[in-house]
Amino acid sequence: MPGLEDLYREIILDHYRNPRNRGELESPPAHRVEGFNPLCGDEIVLYLDLDADGRVADIRISGQGCSISQSSASMMSAAVKGKSVAEIDDLTRAFKAMMSIHENSLEGAETTEPIDAPDVKLGDLEALRGVVKFPVRIKCATLAWNTLAQGIEEASA
Amino acid sequence: MAISTDPIDGTRLKDQFPLLSRDVHGKKIVYLDSAATSQKPLAVLDAMDDYYRTINSNVHRGVYMIAEEATNRMEIARALVRDFIGARSSSEIIFTKNATESLNLVALSWGRANLSAGDVVVLSHMEHHANIVPWHMLVPEIGIELRWIPLDDEGRLDLTDLDALLVGAKVLSVTAMSNVLGTMNPVRTLTDAARKAGAISIIDGCQSVPHSATNVQELGADFLAFSGHKMCGPTGIGVLYGREELLEAMPPFLGGGEMIRDVRLDGFTTNDLPWKFEAGTPPIAEVIGLGAAVEWLNGVGMDNVRAHEIALTEYTISTLHERFGDRINIHGPSSPLERGGVFSFDFDGLHPHDISQVLDQHAVCVRAGHHCAKPLMKLLGIGATARASVYVYNDTADIDALADALDATGAFFTL
User: Fold this and answer.
1) What's the pTM value of the predicted model, to 2 decimals?
2) Which residues of chain B have a CB within 8 Å of the CB of A69?
3) Number of CB pairs < 8 Å for A and B?
């Protein structure tokens, strides 16, 4: 049976207690997007500033939610700052692959390698791997990423 | 705060509930989620087991001995439920699969036959989704108007404008006790006001019937819905009490066997009450289990159950406030006399899912979420709460375990 330490790794708690890039950006020019998890009430407001080259010049996050959703958002903000939209796309797919590996194995699939996962170093984000042992909490971890994808799509449109 | 005399020794009663002796994560379970479902005493488990082992057969059909025994046992259970809530006749006790079905039965059967466009249905801001959605379903179908009784600062119904809300109302449907706030509502005041306005009254008794003595005559309710599994009975069995003349006039809800007197190629005639509303093979074992639960609760005494929960409510509120001060906010009325043993709380600004996840590691079972009361959550301005709830088998040690586990939770997240 997975224990608390599998879910709440120290680095996750660090990001929860000291969230990175917390706050707001003036919008416009920054793009503002909201994400919502109606089942548990997690909400995230993401401010995205893309420069002329399509890189994330700045990102800020506000909102409220559980430690997993908040720390995932904090880690994500640190990971995508300065990255191009293409790099973020790879990162997002790698992160989601990490989250869905276990979903597949729950359904009995024998996959041990992520399907279609780009070869990207996840760094601190690896700490969220334990979340897959608590299926109820996966949507908490992916909320920020889904919101970011929506924001990039809207900002690039 | 003066602690009230507690007539029940919850610690001793635990012995009668097999589940309460199990371990979780290597620790003895501390079950504080009885508002979601109660645990079951041996008396109930044995009654259901005995049915399957000795008299399993379909009811109201067979002429052989065990079928007659099963039918008798089921109808004895109905009489027990009748007396438990002070109904006049067994005809007024309809078995459903849960309280949600009971509320749907009234809304859809009585509602479709009696409501027309522009008619008003009055609900409150503290209703469970089961007493909201069936009415929402009738809005596009019939064109009824829904009105909502507001709440005051302590989570009690604000009845200042009740008479105005009831103008043009055909139905008043409210809970006797909030599953989130613990608020116990003044049911008699509500049913009197409804009657005066020419509306029928429907009471959701899910949280009240298991925890205090209930008499439908004194409540003045036209309908009362409650479930078996929150009152020491099994899942899969609910009750709808209805006044006989209203039930007689209502069209049937589900069609099939049992609910008919005669079926011809050109139509059917319905059976007598209460079977008119009980289509198909009923949940026989569950009915018998509910009967055993009623007998068990009668043995304890419902006034004792209420007194026990008042004492435990005083202990819970004072303990949590003494231990945590401003770190904890308990929703609902502050007076134990105005509330039941349901404690929704915010703690240390932590998300309820994080709280319940850590509490689980300490074998403390509490609920986290919106408790099927999203309009109330929105009114309170929160997405979710953690909720601890007590019953007859809980004791002060359970509350101490909750407080200790909350202490550990705070330390875990806010170091």
Assistant:
1) 0.89
2) 351
3) 51
Can you give the pLDDT at residue A41? 73
The pLDDT assigned to A110 comes to: 47
Please give the single-letter amino acid code of residue B336. Answer: P
Task: Tell me the average pLDDT across A148-157.
Answer: 86
Residue B354 has its nearest CB partner, among A17, A41, A67, at: A67
- The pLDDT, as a whole number, for residue A37 is 83
The residue-averaged pLDDT of A118-127 equals 80
Q: List the domain boundaries for chain A.
A: 4-156
For every residue of B17-61, DSSP letters joined together read -GGGG-EETTEE-EE-BTTT-----HHHHHHHHHIIIII---TTT
CATH number of A4-156: 3.90.1010.10
B34-74 confidence digits (pLDDT tens): 999 999 999 999 999 999 999 999 998 778 999 999 999 99
- Give the closest residue to B124 by CA, choosing from B64, B166, B82: B166
> Are the Cβ atoms of A67 and B377 closer than 8 angstroms?
no
In this structure, which topology does domain B45-299 adopt according to CATH? Aspartate Aminotransferase; domain 2 (3.40.640)
Could you tell me the residue ranges of all domains in chain B? Answer: 10-38+301-414, 45-299
One-letter amino acid at B164 equals A
Could you tell me the fold of the domain covering B10-38+301-414? Aspartate Aminotransferase, domain 1 (3.90.1150)
Instruction: Take residue B370 and report the two structure tokens written for it.
Output: 């919106």
Distance CA B286, CA B298 (A): 18
How far apart (Å, rounded) are the C-alpha atoms in residues A121 and A109? 25
Q: In the predicted model, is pLDDT for residue A105 greater than 60?
A: no
B232 given a catalytic annotation: no
By C-alpha distance, which of B318, B289, B310 is closest to B45? B289
Distant-in-sequence, close-in-space partners of A129: CB < 8 Å, separation ≥ 6: A98
Q: Residue B13: name the closest of B300, B313, B229, B359 by CA.
A: B300
Q: How many Cα neighbours within 13 Å face the side chain of A49?
A: 15
pLDDT per residue as tens digits for the range B266-319: 999 999 999 999 999 999 999 999 999 999 999 999 999 999 999 999 999 999
Other residues' Cβ atoms within 10 Å of the Cβ of residue B53: 9
Strands, E assignment, B36-119? 93-96
- Where does residue B71 fall: left (phi above 0), alpha (psi -120 to 50 degrees), or beta otherwise? alpha
Token pair listed for B76: 């004895």
DSSP 8-state assignment for residue B7: -
- Contacts A134 to B, Cβ<8 Å: 357
Structure tokens at B230: 């929150």
